[in-house]
Each structure stands twice: as C-alpha cells, then as structure tokens.
Specification:
Shape: globular
Distance between the termini: 24 Å
Number of helices: 14
Strand content: under 5%
Helix content: over 70%
Length: 303
C-alpha cells in the first residue's frame, strides 16, 4: 500500500504541476520568470512552515542541512531558471517532451549509482509513457523556431536537475520527513530566486497587480509549490525515484486539458491517444509482473 500511495501521490503532484502552467502563462505577461518563481516558492515556503511547526514534523538533522540546502538550490532555483530559459528558445510542446526524458534519466542514473535495479518492465513503461507524451503533443511538435535545439538541451538539463534531486533527496527525506525536508529545501531555493529578482528589479511591476494577478500568484504558491512538492517528497519517501519520475508524463496532459478549458485551445484525437499511452506506461513501470510476484510468493509448506 505504501508503494501504491507513493505512485498516486506522484501522479497527483505532476497533475497539479500541469495546472500550474496555466497560472504561469497568465502571470508571464505581467512579471518575469524569476519573479514568478520567487512568488511561487516564497508563498509555498510560508504555507509549509507553520504546517511543519504545528504538526511537530522532524526537520533534517544538522548533519543533513548542507545537503538539504544544496538540493533545494538545485531543484527550487536552478531547475525553474533552466525551465524558463528553455522556453525562450523552443516551443512549449517540445519543452514538455524534453522534460519527459526525466524518468529515463532517473532510471539510468539510479541504476548507475546502485539506487534501484534497471528492469525491462520499468524500461518499457518509461518508453511507452514518453511516447504517449509525443503522441499527445504531435500536432504542436511540427513547428519549431530557429535554434530550438538550444531550448531542448536546456530543458533536458532541467530534467537532469530534477532526476538528481529525486535520487539524492530520497534518503534525506526518509531520515527527516517529507514536509520538514521540503520546507527547508524550498526555503533555500526561494531565497536564491528572491535575491536574483531583487538585483534584477523583477519586482517592480508588482505595484500594478490587480486581484487576478494576486490570485494566480496565490494559486502557484499554495497548489503549484506547497502541495505539489509536498506530494513529490511524500512519493519519494515511499517508492523509487524512477516510479516517481515517470509521473511527470502526466504534466503536459493536464496542461493541455487546462489550456482547452481556460484558453479554449482545441482538443484533438492525439491527446486522447497520448493519455491512454501515458497511463499504460505508468501502470507497466509501477507494477510488478506476474513472474516476479510468483517468485516473491512464499512456497506452500514453508514456515
């Protein structure tokens, strides 16, 4: 049950991440990406902090502070910078497909570091889910600006940051707890983004914010940061990095559905086909085959 709850939490986390793209796309017309990240993770930290204190959750041990801060900068500062920079060169569809290399990177790096076994079932599931993303975005992948490969590489670098965070943070999360670890690491990333935004003068347009902009920023902080990344840490505590990472293929699916609902973007047959492939890939990669179940089952008559 712990494994199942971890996978479900990861899928919900990625689904919420996809809906956050709509709020980000709305705010990007008012303030720059650094300021958006500052609001997202700054508000997320302010929401998680009292929750951590009131629940009496464990914070990372003193010996883990440096690692928690470094991972926070990697995931909550460098990742959004690379993510936003990539979209300056490539399309959202190509960026989503490049980000979907995350489970493959997690699988290969995890196997190389001896964190988890490289199995055929996981490999096939990752390939099918990634292919599902490609099918879902088929109609948007044909057009690409000149030099789009730069954005694709930046997005793959962002996926690498996410993969390393998932692998390296897992033992730290187990020693402290998902809320305490996420709060400390998110604080480190938020401080970096806020300082960069201040130096660049990115907060100047905030003076002209109306209710819609503040609501979008609040949504990003509450759901796009606090809840999304608490669920991500919760999932990493209970299952393998690859099984958590493969859920990121849900992200472009929910982003497309939100775009159709809020922005009247068309829904095509390939999106439905992509949804089926994505969830089939997740099911294959996160479940145990019949042979493995039989091998692990106790032999009749044994004590």
């Amino acid at each position: 049950m712990g494994e199942i709850s971890g996978v479900l939490a990861a899928v919900l986390s990625s689904g919420l991440g996809g809906t956050s793209i709509g709020a980000t796309r709305y705010l990007v017309g008012s303030i720059d990406p650094l300021a958006i990240g500052s609001f997202r993770f700054g508000i997320g930290f302010l929401l998680l902090l009292p929750l951590t204190v009131l629940r009496g959750d464990r914070w990372p041990e003193r010996g883990d502070w440096a690692a928690a801060i470094a991972l926070g900068i990697l995931f909550f500062a460098l990742f959004p910078i690379l993510f936003n920079a990539s979209l300056m060169f490539t399309t959202a569809a190509r960026g989503a497909l490049a980000l979907s290399t995350l489970p493959l990177l997690s699988l290969v790096i995890g196997a190389a570091l001896g964190v988890e076994a490289l199995t055929w079932r996981k490999s096939v599931g990752v390939v099918i889910a990634t292919a599902g993303v490609a099918v879902a975005l088929l109609s948007d992948l044909a057009s690409a600006p000149s030099g789009a490969w730069r954005g694709d590489l930046l997005m793959m670098a962002a996926a690498l940051c996410m993969a390393l965070y998932g692998i390296w943070s897992k033992p730290l999360i187990r020693r402290s707890g998902p809320i305490g670890f996420t709060t400390m690491s998110m604080a480190a990333g938020a401080v970096c983004l806020i300082l960069l935004s201040y130096v660049r003068g990115s907060f100047a347009p905030v003076a002209g914010f109306g209710a819609p902009q503040w609501l979008a920023a609040a949504y990003l902080g509450a759901f796009g940061a606090a809840l999304t990344f608490y669920l991500w840490a919760f999932a990493l505590e209970r299952t393998t990095p690859t099984r958590v990472a493969i859920s990121v293929t849900v992200n472009p699916i929910t982003a497309s559905l939100v775009g159709a609902w809020l922005l009247n973007e068309p829904l095509r047959w390939n999106l439905a086909a992509g949804i089926v492939a994505v969830f089939a890939g997740i099911w294959i990669a996160t479940t145990t085959g019949r042979r493995a179940q039989m091998a692990r089952a106790p032999v009749s008559g044994q004590v």
